[in-house]
Amino acid sequence: MHAAFGDDRRSDRADDPSGAAPTTTGDPLKSLEVEPESAATIFGDRIELGRRFTRDLALHGELLGLIGPLELPRLWTRHVLNSAVLAPLILPGARVGDIGSGAGLPGLVLAIARPDAHFVLIEPMERRCEWLHAEADRLGLDNVTVLRARAEDAFSVAPLDQVTARAVSALRTLIPLAAPLVRRGGELIVLKGARVQDEVEAARKQIAKYRLSAIEVVELGRGLVPEATRVFRATVDAAS
Ligand SMILES: C[S@@+](CC[C@H](N)C(=O)[O-])C[C@H]1O[C@@H](n2cnc3c(N)ncnc32)[C@H](O)[C@@H]1O
Question: Which of 153, 168, 191 to mutate to test the pocket of ligand 1 (most atoms within 8 A of CB)?
Answer without folding.
Answer: 168
